[in-house]
Amino acid sequence: MKRLLTIRGLSFSYDGRRKILDGVNLDLHAGESLAIMGYSGSGKTTLLKIIAGLLYPYEGIVEVTADRGGIGYIPQNVGLVKNLTALQNVLHGSLGRVGVLAGMVSKFPAEEVEKAYRLLGEMGLADVADRKAGLLSGGERQRVAVARSLMQSPSILLADEFVSDLDIINAIEVMTLTNKICKRNNIALLMTMHDVQLVNKFADRVAVLKDGRITADMPAGQIDVNTLATILTGGTMR
After folding, report:
1. Which of 6, 74, 139, 141 is 20 to 30 Å from 23 by CA-CA measure?
2. Is the backbone peptide bond immediately before 154 cis, with ω within 30 degrees of 0?
3. Residue 103: predicted pLDDT
4. Using CB atoms within 10 A of its CB, is residue 13 exposed (0-12), middle (13-18) or buried (19+)?
5. Residue 99 binned pLDDT confidence (cut-offs 50, 70, 90)
6. Does this entry carry the keyword Nucleotide-binding (predicted)?
7. Distant-in-sequence contacts of 118-125, Cβ < 8 A, 24+ apart
8. Angstrom distance (rounded) from CA 39 to CA 37
9. What's the average model confidence in pLDDT over 214-234?
10. Number of helical (H) and strand (E) elements in the chain, helices listed first
11. Chain centroid offset of residue 174 CA
12. pLDDT surpassing 60 at residue 3
């Protein structure tokens, strides 16, 4: 598999004293699904923001060799515009291609509109395309956020706890649809998650962040609640 992301010796601090990330090494390949687990405050969100180019400066190497639309990013708060429709929110994922002006005047090329409708359909949202985001359910909003990121045609999709606010049924539905599209299009999926069952169901690998370092990197099927607890309380597994 083609390696799309290479991280070596990555360190980061918000205040110049305490390191949130401390010597992180990580690889991600095309079509691979990697879950990052760890305590709250362990640096998971910070790691994703650095990969997405939202945080700088840092020490170390973060090399992205993704082609197509580069990196798609789904923040934990989803970030939809509530007074815009589901379709309009998804179309905003194409602004990198069509320009900000298109979004301001809501004039998108026909092929972009067609693609947005197709993605909404693939996420099971064809019937809510014209409904404002503020009127959608939590699961529907999450699926719109996924479709918006996929609108970029990314090689890497970053997802920060994007199903953490959903009940298990909706979480599985969102993850199933997202994982299916990513596998079909050879998109690498890097997600932060806290639910071991979801990790084992949808990830190929799991990496555990503790005290700013990757203390475990293994096939997802090898992780369970007891193993995770051992790692987070002092054990090291690779």
Report:
1. 74
2. no
3. 59
4. middle
5. low
6. yes
7. 119/90, 119/147, 119/150, 119/151, 120/86, 120/87, 120/90, 120/144, 120/147, 122/147, 122/177, 122/181, 123/147, 123/177, 123/181, 124/173, 124/177, 125/86
8. 7
9. 87
10. 9, 9
11. 12
12. yes
Rounded to whole angstroms, how far apart are CA atoms 42 and 21?
8
Instruction: At 10, list the tokens.
Output: 């990555």
At 196, the amino acid letter reads: V
170 — phi, psi (to 5°)? Answer: -65, -35
CA quadruple 3, 91, 148, 179: dihedral sign: negative
Q: Give the pLDDT confidence of 165-216 residue by residue, as tens digits.
A: 899 999 999 999 999 999 999 999 999 998 999 999 999 999 999 989 999 9
Return the structure tokens found at 81: 């515009």
CA distances from 148 to 31, 67, 119, 122, 176 (A): 19, 18, 8, 12, 17
Distance CA 98, CA 171 (A): 32
d(CA 46, CA 55): 8
Q: How far apart are CA 231 and CA 208, in angstroms?
A: 8
pTM: 0.89
- 6-17 pLDDT, tens per residue? 999 999 999 988
Whether 92 has a pLDDT exceeding 60, the answer reads: yes
Tell me how far apart the alpha carbons of residues 123 and 162 are, in angstroms, rounded to a whole number.
Answer: 15
Helix (H, G, I), strand (E, B) or coil at 41: coil
Query: 211's torsion region: left (phi>0), alpha (psi -120 to 50) or beta?
Result: left
> Could you give all domains of the chain from N- to C-terminal order, each with its CATH number?
3-233 (3.40.50.300)
